[in-house]
Specification:
Residues 1-17 form the signal peptide. The chain is an alpha+beta fold. Helices cover 33% and strands 28% of the residues.
Length: 474
């Protein structure tokens, strides 16, 4: 999700410039940066799609209607920007367009020259202007900047990046119970970057872990072993494989819950560590946007060590889930006639679930569409999957493959078929219809550009590193 949102920001044309990040004072615990891609040759085609679909005119008009002259603030990041967060403040620097610059100047009081900048503001925040840049910062951070104490470096690079570290002082001040406190201090830093390339874009994710406070919790982020071979699984819109020791996780969660004064009866000792999911295409939702498949259209594969006990564990969890999904808080669980090799159960208002238990794994289908795909052709017969599969290193602890164009086509079709449900006047209803039409058009255009994508994860020391490669016909 983070990767998709990051790419969407790039596509819409607002750009935060990583070069501006180096102007921020050192010492930040988190930051965001996006490269200045307003004139990028990669985005010209998608920018044209955005305009020709009607989305640009539609949203600009709506923003102008709602915000009036303040709509000019949309251009604050038009030429690039960077944001840094500190334990006691923040720093934002941007290259706005002319309209946004004029509006920010107009709203800033008491401007005076200082260190080559025109600076104004109040006790909470200072705003400074140069010829083409503007910064907004808390007073202490602003003073550091004006004293030329700059040079912040991000732990990762790309056209878009975001990183952050948990505030250790805050965690300590919470006075959590010993084991919970240790778990809260395991994550050292998270960072994510996205970079546009000639044939698409790449992504990199880094999760830095400190095992010292809680080695058991840290081990969940630093898995070991070989995941399922996705090539042997049924085809769909996407497939993911990974490693998570479910037996160890259930014991750990039970211990944490006990420390917090709660009782959790979670027994997954019969399960192994390997898992996989396949997302398949289902029927479009009803015209009112509702769907009877609350759990989506998934095939879930779980490694088992003791098939009979694993089935008993699953049924116990499903009975609790079914009770939760009924108005009375109980009942709702019903055994249904089997569907071929799969057993079937009713889970209250959630719907039906199908499963089968084999000698070494359990297979769960969350809908009839997923059930139908269970015995379909496998990914190893998909030429696009084979083309990307060679990128996965032997030490990968998990990976995923998706058909981005197919997923976007499905979403575009569903949006176009759904009748917008609007509460309001005729103008609101018209805007909703126009928005659905334009968004469907835009996503349909994107679907023609997006191809397949692959990402994988490896463990390097105490860091879980994810890398991804995605096709886009710019």
């Amino acid at each position: 999700m983070l990767r998709f949102l990051a790419l969407l920001i790039l596509l819409l044309g607002s750009s935060l410039a990583q070069s501006l990040l180096s102007l921020a004072p050192p010492g930040a615990v988190a930051g965001v940066s996006l490269g200045n891609l307003s004139n990028s040759r990669y985005l010209k085609g998608i920018a044209a799609d955005w305009k020709e679909s009607g989305m640009e005119a539609l949203l600009k008009g709506e923003v102008r209607k709602e915000a009036g002259s303040d709509a000019d603030l949309v251009g604050t990041f038009a030429g690039g920007a960077a944001v840094a967060l500190y334990p006691d403040g923040f720093f934002l620097i941007a290259r706005p367009n002319a309209a946004a610059m004029n509006l920010i100047r107009k709203n800033t009081k008491g401007l005076k020259p200082q260190a080559g900048w025109m600076v104004g503001g109040d006790k909470d925040a200072l705003t400074g202007f140069s010829r083409d840049l503007v910064f907004i910062a808390t007073p202490r951070i602003a003073r550091l900047f004006l004293q030329n104490k700059r040079g912040l470096q991000a732990p990762i690079s790309g056209d878009f990046l975001i990183w952050g570290a948990p505030p250790q002082n805050l965690i300590q001040s919470l006075q959590l119970p010993p084991r919970t406190n240790g778990a809260a201090r395991v994550i050292r830093r998270f960072s994510f970057a996205l970079k546009l390339t000639e044939g698409g874009y790449t992504s990199e994710t880094r999760l830095e872990v400190n095992p010292a406070p809680d080695a058991a919790f840290a081990s969940f982020f630093l898995p070991q072993g070989q995941p399922y071979d996705a090539g042997e699984l049924p085809q769909g819109l996407s497939v993911s494989t990974g490693i998570l020791d479910l037996a160890k996780l259930s014991r750990y969660l039970s211990a944490i819950a006990q420390e917090l004064g709660a009782k959790v009866n979670l027994d997954l000792s019969a399960f192994g560590s390997r898992y996989a999911t396949v997302n398949v295409q289902g029927p479009p939702p009803a015209p009112d946007g509702r769907s009877s498949d609350v759990l989506g259209h998934l095939l879930v594969y779980l490694e088992v060590k003791d098939p009979a006990t694993a089935e008993a564990n699953l049924l116990g969890l499903l009975q609790n889930l079914a009770a939760f999904a009924t108005p009375q808080g109980q009942g709702g669980f019903k055994v249904l006639p089997p569907q071929g090799e799969f057993k079937a159960v009713q889970l209250g208002s959630i719907g039906k679930l199908y499963y089968k238990v084999e000698a070494t794994r359990m297979v769960i289908a969350t809908s009839t569409s997923a059930l139908a795909a269970a015995n379909g052709p496998t990914w190893k017969t998909d030429p696009n999957y084979q083309k990307f599969r060679v990128r996965i290193p032997a030490n990968a602890v998990g990976y995923s493959f998706n058909d981005g164009g197919a997923a976007l086509s499905m979403s575009a079709a569903q949006i176009g078929e759904m009748l917008p449900q609007t509460i309001g006047n005729q103008a609101d209803a018209k805007f909703s219809r126009d928005l659905a039409k334009s968004l469907s058009n835009f996503m349909g255009r994107l679907a023609q550009r997006f191809g397949s994508g692959l990402s994988y994860s490896t463990v390097e020391g105490n860091t879980l590193i994810g890398r991804g490669f995605y096709e886009v016909r710019w």
